[in-house]
Amino acid sequence: MPKDLTDVVIVDYCRTGIGYKDGSLSGIRSDTLVVEIIKALRDRNPKFKDNLENLAKDYKVDSIWGVNSQIGTSALTLGRTAALAAHFPIEVPGMSLNRQCASGMQALLSAITEIQAGIFDFVVAGGMEQQSVYPIGQDMLWVDRDGKKHRSPPHPDVSKNPY
Q: Is 140 among the domain residues?
């Protein structure tokens, strides 16, 4: 079990390109973007790539993804579904979390904490947002029985908070 943060290392990292509204990435599913990131990391690290079928037998592995708007193709626990789509063993769990703009950083912090606590040996973690498809607040939209669209406001006490 790691004794302190110096025992936890980031082996590799990568990111997608920066997207724009109606740009080249807007036609790609959110979960596909994450799967491609995981595959790129896998393919760049031979020990990981060559041992994929035994990964869950040799290591305690997790997948954590921070996602602010968990709707559409960013829903269904992206940490789990992306790991499965990237051909991780079925024994590998996964989770998604939301800490607004810091979701990706929280995913990384959660991964570090899991490793420090000895819960997992290896964690794939990151953040994902596809605002060209799902702009902030899109998940607050709902449709009533008559087909009328409504946007859910935040809790009324939020506006009373003087910060």
A: no
- Looking up tokens 């037998």 gives 57
Q: Which amino acid is at 155?
A: H
Residue 33 included in any domain: yes
Q: Is residue 119 part of a domain?
A: yes
Q: How far is CA 132 from the centre of its chain?
A: 17
For 113-145, the pLDDT digits (tens) are 999 999 999 899 999 887 777 777 777 777 778
Number of H helices, E strands in the chain: 5, 5
Residue 85 has pLDDT above 70, yes or no: yes
Q: What pLDDT is recorded for position 75?
A: 81
DSSP state of 33: H
Give the structural domain span for 18: 5-134
